[in-house]
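Sanity check record (used in CI):
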Amino acid sequence: MWLRDRAGTEPATARSPRRARKILSAIALPVALVAAVFFTVRAVSTGAEVWWWEAAIAYAVALLAAVDLAVLLRRPGR
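Expected output for Membrane protein YdbS with pleckstrin-like domain:
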């Protein structure tokens, strides 16, 4: 069988980080969305450009978390 002829150092009982990724993405998504809305409101109220950059970064984090969560939920688990 091909599993017996492994050349790598990873153990045969290695576990996938799927659960940790789901938890982190589920936490990061709402936190990033709240932060993005907060930074957008600050940008509109103050007019400072730095708040727009903060909002863009927060929206990017939210997008990455949403995509990661969607991929994890779509793939079948073991």
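The CA atoms of residues 3 and 11 lie 11 Å apart. If this sentence no longer matches the regenerated tokens, the check is flagged for review.
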